[in-house]
Design goal:
Elements: E1 11-17, H1 24-35, E2 41-47, H2 53-59, E3 65-67, H3 77-90, E4 94-98, H4 100-112, E5 117-122, H5 134-146, E6 152-155, H6 158-166, E7 174-176, H7 190-200, E8 207-212, H8 221-234, E9 238-243, H9 252-260, E10 267-271, H10 276-282, E11 285-288, H11 298-305, E12 310-313, H12 318-322, E13 327-329, H13 334-366, H14 369-383
Parallel strand pairs: 1-2, 1-4, 2-3, 4-5, 5-6, 6-7, 8-9, 8-11, 9-10, 11-12, 12-13
Length: 389
């Protein structure tokens, strides 16, 4: 049985993702669903694991969300069969998968259910798989061998394409679609700085350096805090904000690292926030300290949209994203990270604002969300077009 033929009716796209917690892939999926043309595309979402906060946002848009009830890191025949039944019931023309485990599960279930075109989603670059479950490494190897089977493979970074080619993935079906950024939601806000300084009880001359990332070996908060300790010794005005899942006092490891660096009162753990755009707009500069694995970091693009200069490690396409509007340093190098922060601090407020304005223009010219959503829509339409070979 071949996939359903192209017609003028709405194209049904089923998105399969590992989980709907807060993360880069989840946020890009959320943005994509928000902007896709509802007259042309009907969307539904399936989470392999239990539902998280992103599910609520998606459901608020009247988009059906299902869960397979699987436990991450454990194969489940029951979960596979639940996905099979959902595919047979809804008959999607497109099965878009997000992240390695969803890629494998979606491919196998999609072929068995004789669903529509299968599109994989690769969201990272050079992952250090030794930091994760053995099953993840096995899944990556299996996907490399099966990569000739999906109808398309969306990669969000040039580096991700290169890395996965070396892992044995077929590049013939790879399509580069970077992350997109909402310039209407993330924008400069003159009132944000005063608001945040009051919330944290900080002086007006404080310089706010922010890291927005979940607690994960990939994000290398260790290097961020080591660099913070180096800067704090000589820059009394510097304060460091850490935002995201696990970035709160309940995380004993991060609290211990703060204590080791004598950074009490200088590092502010804000945890998960529902006002990330305002937090971003209040900063003086943003940072990505990742050691590996980044594809096209959402948080840096969002910071640039807020007109912030950024310091990033040379991981994935981070350097390509910031271009000449920020500074790039080697990964796992706290000394270089600290030096780059000092360089931006020495520019003064006016110099940082010039760089920030250039950063927002760069996002507007190349990575505006509407432009990126159009690329997904064009890909989906082309895959079921009668003109497709």
């Amino acid at each position: 049985m071949s996939p359903p033929p192209f017609s003028s009716k709405r194209i049904t796209v089923l998105h399969l993702i590992t989980e709907l917690t807060v993360g880069g892939a989840q946020r890009m999926l959320e943005k994509l669903l928000e902007r896709m043309d509802q007259e042309k595309f009907r969307s539904l979402v399936v989470s392999m694991a239990d539902l998280g906060p992103v599910a609520e946002s998606i459901q608020a848009r009247k988009i059906p969300v299902f869960t397979l009830g699987m436990r991450l890191g454990r194969p489940s025949l029951g979960g596979f069969l639940r996905l099979y039944r959902i595919l047979r019931e809804h008959c999607p023309e497109i099965v878009q998968t997000w992240l390695y485990h969803a890629d494998l599960l979606g491919l196998l279930a999609g072929k068995l259910a004789r669903a529509g075109r299968v599109v994989w989603g690769i969201r990272c670059s050079d992952m250090d798989l030794g930091d994760y479950r053995v099953l993840t490494a096995l899944t990556v190897r299996a996907n490399a061998r099966l990569s000739f089977l999906p109808d398309a493979i969306v990669v969000n970074s040039e580096k991700g394409k290169e890395v996965h080619w070396k892992l044995g993935y077929s590049t013939r079906k790879m399509v580069l679609i970077e992350n997109g950024f909402d310039l209407t939601r993330f924008h400069p806000d003159e009132s944000a700085r005063e608001w945040l300084l009051q919330e944290l009880a900080l002086p007006e001359d404080a310089i706010l350096i922010g890291l927005v990332a979940r607690w994960d070996p990939m994000k290398d908060q260790h290097s961020f805090l080591k660099a913070a300790a180096l800067v704090a010794e000589s820059m009394a005005a510097a304060h460091f904000l850490m935002v995201g899942p696990g970035m709160d006092p309940a995380n004993r490891k991060v609290v211990e690292l703060i204590h080791q660096g004598r950074l009490e009162g200088r590092v502010h753990l804000l945890g998960v926030r529902n006002d990330p755009s305002r937090i971003m707009a209040a900063l003086d500069m943003a940072c990505s300290s990742s050691a590996y694995g980044e594809g096209f970091p959402n948080t840096i693009g969002e910071a640039m949209a807020c007109a912030l200069p950024c310091v990033v490690t040379d991981v994935g396409d981070s350097a390509r994203l910031v271009g000449d509007t920020g500074l790039v340093v080697p990964p796992r190098n706290p000394e270089a990270l600290a030096m780059a922060w000092r360089e931006l601090m020495d520019l003064g407020e006016e110099g940082r604002q010039r760089l920030g304005a250039a950063a927002r223009r760069r996002v507007q010219d190349h990575f505006d969300l509407s432009r990126i959503v159009s690329k997904y829509e064009s890909l989906y339409s082309s895959l079921i077009s009668p003109a497709r070979p």
